[in-house]
Amino acid sequence: MDIVYIGLKRLSNQNEGHTQAWNALKSLAGAGEILRLSGGRPYFADLRGDFSLSHAGRLAAAAYSVKRSGATGAPLRTACDIERIHPTKDRTPLASRFFHPLEQRWLDGAANRAERQRRFYSLWTLKECFLKAAGSSVFAMKGAPSCVGEAGALKPRIGCGLL
Q: How many angstroms separate the CA atoms of 148 and 122, rounded?
């Protein structure tokens, strides 16, 4: 049986996100040990399942799965990301630093500022999920596969189980 848990929690203040996320993780771990891959991604030492945590502003998100690979029996990686949209911040410098040229063109094709913001955060969360599942950091984002196809639209799947 596959067990998947996805949760979203509203926090009483924006400073408790990290603490709440780790408390949830420690609860799942029980007496088990939590280790880190070389890229910093945490995992259960006993490989009981896989998890991902994220927090932004006054929201925290968690994903937990015990689904296993048919080929190796290892837990399949899961990932989640949540971002707080900052409608007044210009994300162009971040996009030019971290996004693939196809993604840049897709952003540039937005009809207006609001659509550009929606596109930016859609790309950012997809790519961050991909990187989390791969065990990499946000600094590897520029080298990650593009989430936008040659036709100039978001790809329906990028390998991290989203969309």
A: 11
